[in-house]
Amino acid sequence: MQEIKRKYVIPGDKIVEGNFRPLMNVIKTDNSIIATRIGIAETGRDGVKVIPLSGVYIPRVNDIVIGKIIDHSSLSWEVDVNSCFSAHLPAQDVFGRDFSPARDDMGRQLAIGDLIAARIIAFDRTRDPMLTIQDKDLGKIPRGELLKISATRVPRLIGKRGSMIQTIEQATQTRVLIGQNGIVVVMGRNPEGIKLAMRAIRMVEEEAHTANLTQRVKVLLNVPDSPQAEGTSVTQAQNGQKGEEIQSAIEDVEEELEEGEQT
Amino acid sequence: MINQTRNLIDENGRRTDGRTADELREVKITVGVVKNADGSAFIEFGKNKIIVAVYGPREVHPKHMALPDRCVLRCRYHMSPFSTDTRKNPAPSRREVEISKVMREALEPALILEDYPRAAIDVFVEVLQADGGSRCAGIAAASIALADAGINMRDIVSACAAGKVDNKIVLDINDIEDKEGGADMPVAYMPHLEQVTLLQLDGILTSEQFNECVDKALSGCNMVYEIQKQALMQKYFGNETELKEEQ
Known about the structure:
With 263 residues, chain A is of the alpha+beta class. Chain A is built from eight helices and 16 strands.
């Protein structure tokens, strides 16, 4: 593997000098790369990026987000995705190509106040983001406990290949839906389990920057160390057998979730 | 101009609060003090006590203010009624409106506003206790709060004043020196880019004095920057400054 150099930076700090490719949260000046956010700078062979430690959610194409329906016009729903831009879900996405505003009642499918899991299909900051719910695991979320965390903490909550969230789900017998926009929905039959899972999520959010967090979450959830590790490796092995291509951690989790629901 | 009534620098070269000409007042910054804000900072700059909260990028209201190509930065500098010796009317005064404007213009060059078109960033600067140089302290705290809010920035803005007291150029003017001294020059500065974003002056300086004053203020900005940097690092990385390699 290639060598990655990490360091702590604040805006304005010079990360490296020389001809590197700017990837994320950095700007290139004459001959150096400057950080634009507080975070951890990573200098790799393919370029330089800063993993931010603070900030609000800015939509990105292909992000899976959880949003609330706040309004609808005759052709689309307006969805609050916890960002400075409100997203749009076209009615055709739900009703299909032959949607007719005169015939179809939009309130019947998705009412104001409903929660949906959706994927961002288009966004370039000049127009509001466009959503779709035409994918597996997407669509209306019928029940659950909602909580908001900072969007910068989402990768930490998911963990490496979903390890953190799997730990929480298995220990508390719950299902946790995570949107990249920092909205989390916890579902489960057991109210105690939901409560515990929410406590664990809050803890992950507050202590996201500290090391060895998975261990402390396990202590909070009373999970013995070794059996848990075995369980995780088994599920990952199953995934591998299915030959599913797992692109990012979020998809990994979504798949885990789906399996959980089917069983 | 007000005639000077007493000596502001004694025979030992000490000022009214016991500082030397090149000495800063004690500066303390705490990051993340307002829970509901996206970013916040509290600064104690001598006897100044200022709290800054940053919200955004968020939706612009009223909608017609939004700009299609960049973010709008809105700044509100406000002094609490109890911040001064005699009660200050809480309604925004002429002075506060001006400071709000110059503060916005001092912060704008550091922010990459093009990254958030059609959105707004709100900066609220509330002076809880005023002691001269509150606009500089406000700018210094505001730029830390903006960084805390995770807004893309080219650099941190640091700020510090310099001025003339007893015909001598001194760093970081306090309230008495501001009212009775000869000149006051607040300067905001981006240390990495080496660019000045705010320079005001009231009082009269010769061109040599002016140059000396600017140089002194910039050296003060660099001192303030170190404190700002430390405050930010403290909040996000604790006491470590270098990242230890994991795995």
